[in-house]
Amino acid sequence: MFAQVAAPEVVLEAKHQSTAFLSEAVRRAQQGDRSAFEQLYRDHVGRVYALCVRTCGNRSRAEELTQDVFVRTWEMIGSFRGESAFSSWLHRLAVNVVLSDYRSGTRRTARVMTTDDLEPYDRSSGTPEPGTTLDLEEAIEKLPSQARLVFVLHDIEGYKHEEIAEQMGTAVGTCKAQLHRARKLLREALEP
């Protein structure tokens, strides 16, 4: 009738074992153990991919960025000192890879496409037909690149304007303006 709940000591012990396993996997990966690195990859690839797809808005580009993150992780895992959780270190590395890609400009050229059919981009049609409304993820993907990047880093990932501005090489006011723009565009896209 009632579900059994594990005692707090058991939960803490399981959490400690998980942390100990992760630390052991990180330690082994730092020594060049590929199977340990593969385990770290399997444990974290979903979160890294989610960050990449949210920030770049292109699934195939997100796959490339995810691969880049793990290549950098393999190259830099020796610099992980364990002062924070491995997942926090990996997350910061992923953000740096995404921002570096953004700054390099390769993202802009990858998203250029030409079309003669402009009907899907026509906003003068008034009210949308039933079943054509966007969900939040789709609306985020359609934001302009800089606004999307600032929105994801600030509102989803929790970075401060100062951190984002520093990483993007822009002014704090520009980040705030891009966030305002992103929120406005999302409201417009999600209104019934």
What's the architecture of the largest domain in CATH terms?
Orthogonal Bundle
Q: Give me the CATH superfamily of the largest domain.
A: RNA polymerase sigma factor, region 2, helix turn helix motif
Uncertain spans: 1-18
How many runs of DSSP E, i.e. beta strands? 0
Please state the average pLDDT score: 79
CATH topology of the largest domain: Rna Polymerase Sigma Factor, Chain: A
Q: What is the count of helical runs?
A: 9
Task: Please give the largest β-sheet.
Answer: none
End-to-end C-alpha gap: 43 Å
Query: Radius of gyration from the CA trace?
Result: 21 Å
Beta-strand level of the residues, as a percent range? under 5%
What is the share of helical residues? Answer: 55-70%
For the record, the count of structural domains works out to: 2
Judged by helices, strands and strand pairing, the structural class is mainly alpha
CATH C-level of the largest domain: Mainly Alpha
The gross shape turns out to be elongated
What order do the SSEs take from the amino end to the carboxyl end, as H and E? HHHHHHHHH
Descriptive overview:
With 192 residues, the protein is an all-alpha fold. 69% of the residues lie in helices and 0% in strands. The protein has 9 helices and no strands. Helix 2 (34-56) runs antiparallel to helix 3, helix 7 crosses helix 9 and helix 8 packs across helix 9. The longest helix is centred in the N-terminal third of the chain and has 23 residues, at 8-30. 21% of the residues are buried. The model is unreliable at 1-18 (pLDDT under 50).
